[in-house]
Design goal:
Layout: E1 13-21, H1 26-30, E2 36-43, H2 52-57, E3 61-65, E4 72-76, E5 87-89, H3 104-114, H4 116-129
Antiparallel strand pairs: 1-2, 1-3, 3-4, 4-5
Helix pairs in contact: 3-4
Length: 144
């Protein structure tokens, strides 16, 4: 259950945070092949560690984690699981999204809405273009 004491003000995840992305994941492809990105956070939510093995056994894939590897930041269902597009993130990609230049998770949703071929071509374009500066971590080059 929810522990009201645990959910006090000290648990707020706030500000720009590094997210480690699994190589080859949908999230990594949308971010131009980056394995680490900076995204803004504002939440108190976490995946209960007790349920991670059950969720993974059921087919969910945790493809993004915080710097410590403890907090789940992105989750996917793959196309092998007969789902055309499923990407969930803890961050707030809308903070960097602009008209005509959607943040990578939103771009993926738009491409998927156009159909599987559009998503495939769009992911190839993201990888060809490479990472966008506004998502690269501060203080060093990302590993891509």
């Amino acid at each position: 259950g929810i522990n009201a004491e645990y959910m006090g003000g000290a648990t707020m995840v706030l500000g720009a945070r590094r997210i480690s992305l699994s190589p080859g994941s949908l999230a990594s492809q949308l971010y131009g092949g980056l394995h680490e990105v900076m995204e803004r956070q504002r939440h108190r939510y976490e995946v209960n560690k007790e349920f991670i093995p059950r969720l993974e056994t059921a087919g969910m894939v945790f493809t993004g984690r915080d710097e410590t590897g403890e907090r789940m930041e992105a989750i996917e269902l793959t196309t092998e699981q007969s789902h055309p597009f499923f990407l969930g993130v803890q961050c707030h990609p809308e903070f960097k999204s602009r008209p005509g230049y959607p943040a990578p998770p939103f771009l993926g949703l738009l491409l998927a809405a156009l159909g599987p071929e559009a998503l495939k071509k769009g992911l190839q374009a993201c990888l060809s273009r490479g990472p966008v500066n506004q998502y690269k971590p501060f203080g060093g080059s990302p590993s891509c």
